[in-house]
């Protein structure tokens, strides 16, 4: 394929992605309630242990909470949107912080100050012709819902969520057209506190709790999709998967079957959101794991009649699995630990770099669902060095993104319908998993370190100019 031949549509949504809980800061300002990240320490003080025991974490006082100030996007958003516009963004993915609108989650009346902030943010985007792409719940189930109901384990969270959706769909009608109901909805199985505001520490059958909570979210997603279409027929509402194809370690049929099972863990959610019903393989899985879902009358109907308009997903790397219990070579990934693939290099955090895996993943998802796709996260977390002259030469990031854009275009040539591409952390922000600042993804550098020190001054990296030319050429010039 010639680099000069554009394969992407003229209206392709180039942009970047952040999440409210990782960039806004202002953690209790203007009436905001607590988000899950607000009670978490940094990596040095046991962030992962805190994630696994959230009620215990809530009672613990730490010296430093990375999210409390973060990169102060709440006060600096105009400066940041202006930089996004300079890069040529057509689209900006962010989220609406649920406890900024309903501080306790189950409030009857929304917080006007919170609503005003997002009014101003979306107006600023529109000023530059940037289309907001909004995640409704991006790991932001209010902490008070965990304390009072154990989060999405309780079916009442459906009503609380729909009240939230009703308010924001009406408030931002005409300002926001593209929505996603839940970020990486499959993460509820792996980080239930982030995914659903749940503490499973004392649950008799944690898997039962996770899947029951997942059912509540799936019903809520379908009902939100219905509501969003009713309030504004122009709305496009999607689901969101933490994706990345799992390969078999060998051609041993047992390894291949193991990879099918691993891939189904994630596809389970999108099967329901995109097809409208529980997949056939779930019945045996539930029986063998003593999972008995409580479905209410009307649940199956609402799932069937309100499937999503498009499928968005994050992709950072592929995964690898084996049926051989002796084969235990492990490396890190986006929450998912995986086996080391001898054919791939890895980032500083052990995430394996597999551009072709993006093309494979896109083809697999599109073949499965035949709905438009949207790549809403992709990127390389790395330590950046500020040179004496202030420059930041992040060629490693450019190389990573270049090769992924190349394979993204190949997938489009394969016949995949793709709406847009928003690399993760387009401006440096706090890592969700580790709470670190040094694990940077952005085109824009933010002067802040892991301990919260720094001026928060923004500066352009080398990748800033590279991505600017990519967007200007609609993906033709990626050199």
UniProtKB/TrEMBL annotation:
Keyword vocabulary terms for this entry: Glycosidase, Hydrolase
Organism (species): Sebaldella termitidis (strain ATCC 33386 / NCTC 11300)
InterPro entries: GH, GH_1_N_CS, Glyco_hydro_1, Glyco_hydro_1_AS
GO BP annotation list: carbohydrate catabolic process
Protein name in UniProt: Glycoside hydrolase family 1
Active site feature: 377
Highest taxon in the source lineage: Bacteria
Membership in a protein family: Belongs to the glycosyl hydrolase 1 family.
PROSITE patterns named in the record: GLYCOSYL_HYDROL_F1_1, GLYCOSYL_HYDROL_F1_2
Coiled-coil regions listed in the entry: none
Molecular function terms from GO: beta-glucosidase activity
Cellular component terms (Gene Ontology): cytosol
